[in-house]
Amino acid sequence: VQLQASGGGLVQVGDSLRLTCTASGPTIIYYHMAWFREAPGKEREFVAGTTWSGKIPRYADFLKGRFTISKDNAKNTVDLQMSTLKAEDAAIYYCGATSRADISEFADDYDYWGQGTQVTVSS
Q: 123, 122, 116: which is closest to 19 by C-alpha?
């Protein structure tokens, strides 16, 4: 499975942005998918994940409902809709795929990663 993250860019505080993770090769229909982010000097942290069906999402507590993850198995994509962006949301965002039994909030549990897309939030 090859993952390609896109949609990052420079936005202002309070803006919205939509990230897309596109898979190529084998279908991701059987994988739980997630978005992580990595800010300078910090470890990669879980942001949001969804089950293979796309029906059961999970979010990091710090998001407080600002982001929405969605999975389209027909298109082989996973999107992250980000709203009310804050300066602390600035990071490189990565999408990952795991074959484990459930969504994991640990980066080591993911089998495949995309290359990352940069999100910069200016105040």
A: 116
Q: What digits encode the pLDDT tens for the residues 18-60?
A: 999 999 887 888 999 999 999 999 999 999 999 999 999 999 9
Cα distance between residue 118 and residue 7, in whole Å: 8
Euclidean distance between the first and final Cα of the chain, in Å?
Answer: 37
Comparing C-alpha atoms, which of 122, 108, 123, 120 is closest to residue 36?
A: 108
Question: 73-88, pLDDT tens digit by residue?
Answer: 999 999 999 999 999 9
Structure tokens belonging to residue 98 = 């795991």
CA 112 vs CA 49, 108, 120: distances in Å: 14, 10, 24
Dist. CA 99–CA 43, nearest whole Å: 22
Report which of 119, 82, 78, 118 is spatially closest to residue 98, judged by C-alpha positions: 78
